[in-house]
Specification:
Two copies of one chain form a homodimer. Chain A has a single domain, classed as HUPs (Rossmann fold), CATH 3.40.50.620. The first copy, chain A, is built from seven helices and five strands; from the N terminus they run βαβαβααβαβαα. A five-stranded parallel β-sheet of chain A has the order 3-2-1-4-5, with helices on both faces. The longest helix of chain A is centred in the middle third of the chain and has 16 residues. The first copy, chain A, is 38% helix and 11% strand. In chain A, α2 links the parallel β2 and β3. Chain A is an alpha/beta fold and 224 residues long. Chains A and B meet through β3, α3, α4 and α5 of A and β3, α3, α4 and α5 of B.
């Protein structure tokens, strides 16, 4: 019996990861984290739509408001502007300090309680925004941390199935897995339609274009 | 400039750890986490008293209510009894799944924002309750996880200064550091006075006795 917890923000990467988890496990449970991100309400809508679509065995929404409280990121602090994509390779201001370690730790706690043996996260290393907690090396050490810090009754595997894919490959994989892209949300702004100019929109639009697939979500006029 | 964040529950171990951090750093910041533990209000009183005493540069209280929501521990689920100390070496029901990884991850996020370069946690491996996330090997991997998952502008060191001490040595160290034991709280029950029978009270009482030091907190009649 393979039971997987999927960290599901509602973005394209976590959606495709959920599709993968669904294919490879007997049961999936979805975990969404609110952390005061500026897109909190929009992400939550996506999460609910995806729960309706996939009907996971369990779903859980948890609050990490303090990640927003402590600040330090344009994703949680509206006084810091979300930058327009400029191709720079430094760590962007949208980096939320050590966020993924917090998300994974929460998922591991839940996994120990519900006896899940897989945790899926849609981190992408190379073709992404350059966040340190999206790198393979971080996950390698996180795996050992999980092995040594839990009861070990059921070993918990941390799965990063799309970490080395290019974004366009993620789109193609999503098509293959028949994921409902129309319910996903990637934009860093909290509007009804995607802005088309932030890092995240830029990477998404370029990915669909390169994959030769139409992105079914709505964008601001002229931004597609 | 050494700025340390101390994970301070208000118990004896975290208090002595705070005393150590205070001695070895230019500045200390105290972090307390509420996670629906049955002793939440009692711990919070200790935390406030210790903030008054030490006057840290900053203090932060964060909520991880979901750790209580997901259950699986006698510390957060009042339907599971806190066991009377019985000397058994298995993982007790008071284990909160992967709790310390969650606490440390939160501390690391805060450290990145306020440029703290040390995080102190009062974990004790051998002379303790046998929780997996109190073992040296877990901290060894957690350190690598922190190194590889953060921006690295300021390297963040994870300090576990009392991990290999016996409990009576922790008491002696506390005396040497002149920590205010009277403000600390170790009991797993949420009463005005310590029960004297849970694992935590048993270990504390034995420690003070072996150290030849009077424990200034109040215990239930006949339990000292």
């Amino acid at each position: 019996m393979n039971r997987a917890i999927v960290l599901l923000s509602g973005g394209m990467d976590s959606l495709v990861t959920a599709g993968m988890a669904r294919r490879n496990n007997d049961s999936v449970c979805f975990l969404h984290v609110n952390y005061g991100q500026r897109t909190e309400s929009r992400e939550l809508t996506s999460f609910h739509n995806l729960c309706n679509y996939y009907q996971p065995e369990q779903s859980l929404i948890i609050n990490m408001d303090w990640l927003g409280q402590i600040g330090g990121s344009a994703l949680t602090d509206t006084s810091i502007a979300v930058r327009v994509y400029d191709g720079k390779k430094d760590i962007p201001k949208t980096y939320v300090p050590f966020r993924n370690a917090n998300l994974i730790s929460a998922a591991v706690s839940w996994a120990e309680v519900i006896s899940a043996n897989h945790i899926y996260i849609g981190a992408v290393e190379e073709d992404s925004s350059g966040y340190p907690d999206c790198r393979e090396i971080f996950y390698r050490h996180m795996r050992r941390t999980i092995q040594t810090g839990t009861q070990g009754k059921i070993p918990i595997e941390l799965e990063t199935p799309i970490i080395h894919l290019d974004k366009y490959q993620i789109v193609k994989l999503g098509v293959e897995l028949q994921v409902p892209f129309e319910f996903s949300w990637s934009c860093y702004q909290n509007n009804e339609i995607a802005c088309g100019t932030c890092d995240s929109c830029y990477l998404r639009l370029r990915a669909f274009e390169k994959a030769g697939v139409f992105d079914p979500i709505r964008y601001a006029p002229g931004m597609r």
